[in-house]
Amino acid sequence: MQRQALKHLHVDAPRVMVVDGSRLVRRLIAGVLQRDLPGVEVVGCASIAEAQQALLEGPVNLVTTSLSLPDGDGLALARWVREAAGQAYVPVIVVSGDAQAHLEQRRFTEYVTDHFDKALGHEALAAFIRGYVQPTTIPGATLLYVEDSRVVAEATKRMLERQQLNVLHVMTAEEAFALLTAESLGRHQHRIDLILTDVTLKGELSGRDVVERVRLDFGYGKRRLPVLVMTGDGNPHNQTTLLQAGANDLVLKPIEERLLVTKVLFQLRLSRLNPGSVV
To answer: In the UniProt record, does the keyword Nuclease occur (predicted)?
Structure first.
């Protein structure tokens, strides 16, 4: 299953399946979703068997699953959804307290659309799910976009500007650092809300250097200034290195517009959440 085939559509009355062995967790997630997504129908399932039965009774618009289930794991459920439930394009989100470790070790399969770290809390999970089933823009948010190909940059900028985002495009890491320095000194008219960088850049510095300097030299944490790295490198070790250096997430090439937009908008929403809501 190719990642670019996983379409994420706007749905007015989404049907969201929540698969978790804990009844309390299912109730908490359902409560937040029902508050934030009017018209949502939450299908709670405690196991793979319950999820299989529910999917046979009707389609859903999104599936969230924990990694550990009473009768198997979330990765097996993701595969079943793709292959047996007739829903090859439904987003399947793995919700786990070990999501970052699994991501870094590249354990997630092609059947998993995305991942979510449950340590971020249920409010953040609701925002994440909303980004898939009912994408909402954050007009005026400013992205610093580092890309040395003008052709690629123009195409990607159009994707982002359709979401009413302000995109500052630069060609090199050095230009990005100059803008960040100006902002830190109060000499730039925009607050930079997120950085999107290609991993391969012309010059001596790479996208990994951008991540490392943002985290170490500028001292910006992941919530203050999210960094997404675009990469076509399928090497698991290289992908892990980017995440360990401080990237919030990776966007794999070739770029699929809805997946890019979902990741960008989610990171922007998460950075605006009250820190007290993160558990």
So the answer is: no
